[in-house]
Design goal:
This protein is of the alpha/beta class. The structure holds ligand MGD (2 copies) and molybdenum atom (MO).
Length: about 775
């Protein structure tokens, strides 16, 4: 049996020459050198476009060429020279297109013209914008209730598009705004709002320059937020401790060669990033953090007078619930914490010492924390730990949920939520003069249930790939097909577009990299990053086709056809997006003088009340949570189950952007040319009698009697805790049950699926 440390065959650092080689390949494959390089030079520049990759912040100072390997993939994927023209759809029926892989669908290139599905010919056919808008408007108006329509948003939509979209939906009469955030960081918003009164991260990018310790929970920044590695590298170089909590030892947290550091690149050097790697079992983080907190108290008791481990002044002035929390910690045994977290007491104590020795600590997290049943409680536990040492609202410290899509945070700020707050609705009502609906709408999982039961009949999607991003793929496909109307606003063809309702439209839109010419001249849009910085974005390439419309223009077109222009002058807003921003200024706090401030080179900071020690909670203080640990995590359940039962997490490879697959490689994990793989501990393989590269089938241990199966996955021996598996999303979404969602977040538990593994049938 190989030494577990040597299991990963990729030995290079994250970034480095491997990244540059991959960048060259993406540019060549999609765009050609000249236009590709020209496009990349404008990414994340004050006069360019916001990278459509991740939501990591841009540095405020310096004008460094801020892009990364995976940003290049996202940009060239959009700026591709390939086109999916009406001829493609004339040549191929929908039934034929359904046999294409996800990669092949998107690889047809950019959509060029509005399309309508013709059931008689089983083909998508070109249709005029006027006809499409008129028909969609007619069908929306014909619904028995506005709540029969669902308006999904993926987090790439700009603030301007998102604002118009929610305004349209609310004037129409519904709060049915499911969005990708429901599948992503929902738990972060819910937990932080309860704990500190604001559902967003409290740090700015500069804070990373002052932190003495950075704890990274359940996140793979080398792949998903590569620009974050620059901040981590600088911190590690300064001597700050970077500590990873992750069942996998992700390469980006081990060592990083910054492609923008010439000396390092020439010397083929790299910077070690994390000083410590702790590998909890899947879903074990709440116990791990509770264990660290318990150890922090112990350290405090040891040094009773002065310089204790707790920030007593902060706790006294700003928090409530500390006593209960302390009692909960006392009552929780180390045995329980060890069993559930998968870490030893010594490891939790070691992390506590690092935490106590640091006067300024940032905790970051992503999907490894948010996609479990008890994610909200886990994030509250993270907030507890931060509060113990006053690590919120001081420079170099704070909570940092690292968001996914480049504008997912901005979309929420603009009102894309199924649970709008009263103040916001009143502001809309005052400004536009209508009665906004109060009844909460459907989130992503509820939307699926509504389509299945016939309660929802129209599905409109502003970007994204709903059919592949959501759980229980087969059920969702059925649900979409049961609609009377499906409308997808998109840049490229994907599987969701093929799940047609009785009537179906695919409406092609401009991407971030393209300029947007309207009556009032060339327009800019704006976005908000994970650090609450709002800034402008303007494309530089000509549109992929003359027949494209911008997202705001498409939303306005549908809105006008549905509602007319009495309340809102949709045309005027599209002629000049400053008009949309004027409405935002008037109705959303923090956006005064939006049009002026958005034009400042790096935009503006929205502010964060918790970072100012203003606590908008019910008690007016930051609140500790003493929630009990989960009775059992899925890992603990599967450990007891008979047969080869495991807990499976579904994650991203290095060469994909969510449901968009760029290639079948996963460089840092040593996988080439294959996506149907399952990473497994060699001891588990031995026990299950499985050899390297052997094919297996996985079946969910379902609670509802439904069979959920994914077949033909190749076993890859990997340094992963025993009892835990990892495999790529979206192929594994067939295994995620619709009923398995997080408490109070309703996010599918994509990081803890109980499965049984067996040798593949017939091979
Ligand atoms: N290139 C690229 N960039 C992206 C994306 C992309 O697909 N490609 N997606 C964007 C989006 S929408 C998002 S939300 C982010 C996603 O960014 P990530 O959250 O980094 O994405 P995942 O690949 O899901 O990785 C989850 C990580 O959490 C770890 N993990 C899983 N379960 C647990 C657990 O129980 N405990 C702990 N401690 N760790 C665990 C996994 O091992 C893995 O390292 O990235 C964004 N940026
Ligand atoms: N099992 C499992 N499931 C998951 C996850 C997981 O970790 N495991 N992660 C979840 C997470 S974190 C998220 S955020 C969701 C993602 O869910 P979505 O946001 O719905 O999915 P994406 O794959 O990002 O959407 C890709 C599509 O968006 C369209 N698109 C790209 N750019 C643009 C644009 O500029 N405008 C418009 N209108 N369309 C555009 C293209 O047609 C492309 O095919 O998936 C979730 N699902
Ligand atoms: Mo996400």
């Amino acid at each position: 049996m190989a030494d577990e440390r040597d299991l990963n065959t990729y030995k290079g650092p994250a970034g480095g020459w491997g990244a540059l080689k991959s960048v060259g390949q993406s540019i060549l494959r999609e765009t050609g050198v000249v236009s590709g390089v020209k496009t990349m030079l404008k990414a994340n520049q004050p006069d360019g476009f916001d990278c459509p990759g991740c939501a990591w912040g841009d540095p405020e100072h310096g004008s460094s060429f801020e892009f990364c390997e995976n940003g290049v993939k996202a940009v060239t994927w959009e700026a591709t020279s390939k086109r999916a023209t009406p001829e493609l759809f004339a040549r191929h029926t929908l039934s034929e297109l359904l046999t294409y892989s996800d990669f092949d669908l998107e690889n047809q290139g950019r959509l060029t013209t509005p399309l309508r599905y013709n059931r008689d010919t089983d083909r998508f056919e070109a249709v005029s914008w006027e006809e499409a808008f008129a028909d969609i408007g007619r069908q929306l108006k014909a619904l028995a209730s506005p709540n029969e329509a669902l308006f999904y948003t993926s987090g790439r939509a700009s603030n301007e598009a998102a604002y118009l979209y929610q305004l349209f939906g609310r004037v129409f009469g519904t709060n049915n705004f499911p969005d990708c955030s429901n599948l992503c960081h929902e738990a972060s918003g819910v937990a932080l709002t309860k704990a500190i009164g604001v559902g967003k991260g409290t740090v700015k990018l500069e804070d990373f320059e002052h932190a003495e310790a950075i704890f990274v929970f359940g996140q793979n920044p080398g792949t998903n937020h590569p620009r974050m590695l620059a901040a981590l590298k600088d911190a590690a170089k300064r001597g700050a401790k970077v500590v990873s909590f992750n069942p996998l030892k992700e390469r980006g947290l081990e060592k990083f060669a910054d492609p923008q550091d010439k000396a390092q690149m020439i010397a083929r050097g790299s910077t070690p990033i994390a000083s410590h790697f702790f590998a909890p079992k899947l879903g074990g983080d709440m116990a791990a953090v509770r264990g660290i907190a318990k150890a922090v108290f112990a350290l405090d008791y040891e040094r009773v007078r002065g310089g204790g481990a707790l920030d007593r002044a902060f706790l006294e002035a700003h928090t409530t619930g500390l006593e209960d929390y302390e009692k909960t910690l006392e009552e929780t045994s180390w045995a329980e914490l060890e069993d559930q977290s998968g870490l030893t007491r010594e490891q939790m104590e070691q992390a506590a010492v690092i935490y106590v020795q640091s006067d300024r600590t940032i905790i970051t997290w992503a999907m490894g924390i948010t996609q479990h049943k008890h994610s909200v409680d886990t994030i509250r536990e993270i907030a507890n730990l931060l509060l113990l040492r006053g690590n919120i609202g001081k420079p170099g410290a704070g909570a940092c949920p690292v968001r996914g899509h480049s504008n997912v945070q901005g979309d929420r700020t603009m009102g894309i939520t199924e649970k709008p707050n009263e103040m916001f609705l009143q502001a809309l009502e005052r400004y536009f003069g209508f009665k906004a609906p109060r009844e909460h709408g459907a989130d992503a999982v509820q939307a699926i249930k509504m389509m299945r039961s016939g309660k929802a009949k129209v599905f409109v999607s502003l970007g994204g790939n709903f059919a592949r991003a959501t759980p229980d793929t087969l059920l969702v496909e059925e649900a979409l097909r049961a609609c009377t109307l499906t409308v997808n606003i998109a840049t490229k063809l994907n599987r969701s577009h093929l799940m047609v309702g009785k009537k179906a439209y695919v409406l092609p839109c401009l991407g971030r990299t393209e300029f947007d010419e309207q009556e009032g001249g060339r327009q800019i849009i704006s976005v908000e990053d994970s650090m609450s910085m709002v800034h402008s974005s303007g494309g530089i390439n000509p549109p992929a086709s003359p027949d494209l419309k911008s997202e705001p223009a498409i939303v306005a077109g549908i809105a006008k056809a549905t509602l007319g222009s009495d309340l809102v002058n949709w045309d005027e807003m599209i002629a000049d997006y400053d008009k949309i921003r004027d409405c935002i200024s008037a109705t959303i706090p923090g956006f005064k003088n939006y049009n002026t401030r958005v034009r400042e080179p790096r935009g503006f900071y929205l502010g964060n009340t918790a970072a100012e020690h203003r606590w908008l909670t019910s008690t007016g203080k930051a609140e500790f949570s003493s929630a009990p640990l989960p009775e059992e995590t899925v890992y603990q359940q599967t450990r007891k189950a008979k047969g080869n039962a495991f807990v499976l997490q579904t994650l991203r490879s290095h060469d994909q952007y969510n449901t968009t697959v760029y290639s079948a490689n996963d460089r840092y994990r040593g996988v080439t040319g294959e996506r149907l793989v399952v990473f497994m501990n060699p001891k588990d393989m031995e026990r299950a009698g499985l050899a390297e590269d052997e094919r297996v089938d996985m079946e969910t241990i379902s609670e509802d009697g439904r069979k959920r199966e994914a077949r033909g996955f190749k076993v890859v021996p990997y340094d992963i805790p025993e009892g835990c598996l990892a495999s790529y999303y979206p192929e594994t979404n067939v295994l995620v049950p619709l009923y398995a969602t997080g408490t109070a977040s309703n996010t599918p538990t994509s990081k803890s699926i109980p499965v049984v593994v067996r040798k593949a049938q017939g091979g």
